[in-house]
Amino acid sequence: MPQSKESKISYDYNIYKIDKDKINELKQHLLDRSFNKIDIKKGCIKNSGGFNFEILFCDKISSTGMPWIDLISNFTDQNLELNIRTYGAAIICQKDGECYAISYGNAHFYINEFANPTFGINVAERIIDLENVKTQQNISQGSRKNKVLTDYFSGTQLSFRGGEIPTFIRGESINESIWGKIISCGKSTQFRWELLPLEIGQRLNDLTKVLKKEVKNEIPKLIILDSEQQIKELNLQLAKAIKEYDEKEQNNSYINVPYFYFVGTKLIQSEGIAFKISCDRKTGLYEGEVTIEKIQEFLQEKNIDIEKSLLNIKIAIQNSEGKFNYHPLLEYLEFITNDNICLREGKWCTFNQSYLNQVLRDVRQIEILNHNGDKEYIYHKGELEKYARQKNIYPQNNENKVQYETFYNNRLNEIINGKMIHPETIPVEKDGNGRYKYEICDIVKGTDMYFVKIGKPHDFAYAVDQAMQTLELIQKGYGKISLPDASEIIPKKFHLLLVFSDRKNIVKKWEDIYSINFLVHLAELKQKVNVMGIDLIVEFAYNF
């Protein structure tokens, strides 16, 4: 594309990295979609750098055409039918197991499926001047629904918060003579070079070399795994962990069944819930909180081998209408391996140390208060049962209805002389039909709101989500929120009171909490309360 009469012609390149075990699969995929290998004239390949080049070209009639042409045809007798054609091309560049694919036209739709997901960002952190970024796009993994944040800079430093992952970076290169002036990096990398497509072999060698260099400032990455074999092995590892899980032996368990469920994208609290577990046409109905022990109980009762049937297990939690909506078991679990692989929202992902460091950097801004010497905050089931009987709130003749969080909240409310909210609820949507409700917090004292959760670190993500939902209502109310008794307050401080059900070791620093889910959500909550001018403190209580 000529830029001026004096300048040389430059060409745009959209380059993908293809892992060697997917090269043949990609070629076959293109051939199955009307791409054909075409002959290359002799002498066109120059300075190959040892790369072999293949060109696959597609020229076919579009199966969908253009719907608007059919629409306009209704208003005229003139024949507006056109044979809409689809064009695309892929240049496959291979050398010693290294493979790059250059896309033209519609080819990128097909190549993208087989491309290395970290390639673009790996290139960006090595050859883009990250102090001079023009455009960046981040995905936040903290929210239940991933959100995309796009910032348009004018030569600004690359920025991201805990839980955010840069997925697209456009900026000036560190070496214009090799890479060109501006580079765009996403899943692919886009260059503009004054070289013809079959003359870029040395550039690809340069790219291969730079990718092997160590990075001083690594960009956070959380990548969804797509290797079927690896996912199969991870599922087996998870199945064995559930099968062998022993609550008494767990100190910092990596398995978690959070105490929540969804209606659409809304979080709905329900302490005395009922739920079903199903697998291979076998179903069990249970009451109370979903736990690994109850999953084990179901497997034993129904004689199910979890290692063979993990992906067939589904859980349905009763909604406000008494109905059960099933979701795969994996969507309810958090699981972390020792080699930085985690299960998030039903998908296996790998994260790098930079991702974890960034999350820890943000959560370190949050104050930690340990109630290790305060007897009033100790979690002890026997003492709570005694308290509940004294206050006549212990359920009679129904042990299944024992709710220790309710007992704990009542006792705490007496201690701080607050206003009890738990278990009262309010509608999720103010203008809705009131069908879906949730608990905005557990206790209010003045302008302070308390969110209490009893369990393990992974369970504590629920309290963060509850606080996040409440914060959204405060934002909609321009800083105010209505309580179930119709009174209003302007919250100034959030207390997350997180009570360990079986931990006696004091949390001295955030690294002591090994739950990616909890830390990521907490980092995002901190960012949002800062915007609203609300303080955040995390308080820990223990089972001494």
- Distance between termini? 73 Å
Percentage of residues in strands: 25-35%
Counting DSSP E segments of at least 2 residues, the number of strands comes to 30
Low-pLDDT ranges: 251-272
Radius of gyration using CA atoms only: 28 Å
The secondary structure category is alpha+beta
Largest sheet: 10 strands, antiparallel
Mean pLDDT: 83
- Could you estimate the helical fraction of the residues in percent? 25-40%
What characteristic shape results from the CA principal axes? elongated
Please report the number of helical segments. 14
Strand order of the largest sheet: 2-3-4-5-1-10-9-8-6-7
What labels would you give this structure?
single chain; alpha+beta; 10-stranded antiparallel sheet; 6-stranded mixed sheet; 14 helices; 30% strand; elongated
Explained architecture:
This protein has 544 residues and is of the alpha+beta class. 26% of the residues lie in helices and 30% in strands. It is built from 14 helices and 30 strands. The strands form 7 sheets. A 10-stranded antiparallel β-sheet has the order 2-3-4-5-1-10-9-8-6-7, with helices on both faces. It has a 6-stranded mixed β-sheet with strand order 21-30-29-26-25-22, with helices on both faces. Strands 11-20-19-18 form a 4-stranded antiparallel β-sheet. A hairpin with a 5-residue loop joins strand 27 and strand 28. The radius of gyration is 28 Å and the shape is elongated.
Summarize the SSE layout with pairings.
Elements: E1 11-17, H1 23-31, E2 35-38, E3 52-61, H2 67-73, E4 85-95, E5 98-105, H3 107-111, H4 119-127, E6 128-140, E7 147-156, E8 164-173, H5 176-179, E9 182-185, E10 189-193, H6 201-211, E11 222-224, H7 228-243, E12 261-263, E13 266-268, E14 274-279, E15 282-287, H8 292-301, H9 306-309, E16 314-318, E17 324-328, E18 335-336, E19 341-344, E20 347-351, H10 353-363, E21 367-370, H11 381-390, H12 404-416, E22 419-420, E23 426-427, E24 437-438, E25 443-445, E26 448-455, H13 461-476, E27 481-482, E28 488-489, E29 493-500, H14 516-532, E30 535-541
Parallel strand pairs: 21-30, 26-29, 29-30
Antiparallel strand pairs: 1-5, 1-10, 2-3, 3-4, 4-5, 6-7, 6-8, 8-9, 9-10, 11-20, 12-13, 14-15, 14-16, 16-17, 18-19, 19-20, 22-25, 23-24, 25-26, 27-28
